[in-house]
Design goal:
Layout (H helix, E strand, L loop, with lengths): L2 H59 L4 H23 L4 H25 L3 H5 L1 H36 L3 H7 L14 H4 L7
Helix pairs in contact: 1-2, 1-5, 2-3
Amino acid sequence: MSIAQIFTLAIIALFIFWAVGVYNRLVKLRNEIANAFAQIDVQLKRRHDLIPNLVEVARKYMSHERETLERVTAARAQAMAAADLVRSQPNQAGALKSLNLAEQVLGSALGKLNVVMESYPELKADQTVRDLNEELTHTENKVAFSRQLFNDVTLEFNNAIHQFPANVIAGLFGFRTAAMLQATTTEAERAPVKVSF
């Protein structure tokens, strides 16, 4: 075997090792995205599990606010369905958008519930309600941290598949840009709130 053949084989072997290394890194990053969403999913499930308890306690005091309570319950069901969709397709932009919208609707419904609860001093004073609200607040913070982790991992993955020369391997093996979670989805939602007195 000549030196040129040995050199050629060495170059080919280095290229194969490099390609395998890049491929394995991309797979690892893609799996980290799925894991990051799993962390969000755990917190969302916890949040979704707390809401019926809050609604049930509030129902005892708020007999005239049935519509508000039904809105919260319906928004929770929609958010749970959207989370199920993302769980099966964690990198799909459409599924993440549906989850974002469903969670915004749920957050809005919970906000309205809290506003209505302000009209019921005995409800605000209920220890169970205070405990549930505190748990929801802690859970919301955990969801926010989990979403940040998800976006950080997604950004790292997206950077990896778009940087040369790794983008060649990413293209060959079908790695596609992963969607990130966003707080709002339309320009109208991003517009500053106008307050007038």
